Amino acid sequence: MTGLLGPGSEALAGKYGNVLAPFVELMAAELHANSMKGDRPGWLAMSREVALLEIYWHTAKLSAAVKNNDASAIREHSADVANMAMMLLDVCGGLQVASCEWPTCDCALEPKNCKALGA
To answer: Of 41, 48, 63, 96, which sees the most CB atoms within 10 A?
Structure first.
């Protein structure tokens, strides 16, 4: 499945849109809340192994939040786990990114060549 959220896409308004849209909002809020950690260049600098360990770490935090019935933490850590899965996929080269904030960057073709990383 490629291009679900591309121009003219109705993925967030389609069959699962009522669930996807608020979850994507949670993911975006968590990305912005953690942007001081380096944004995309920061996660692209991680190895696959470190990115996977981050998923385990955030899953453990989610597990504790569920055990404690902490709705706020469940929301936060659910978004964190999803974001870390996205980052791992990006580190592994599995995302087709439309563009980077750097106008002449070719990281959509090869993430490790992102100019924001100093490539």
So the answer is: 41
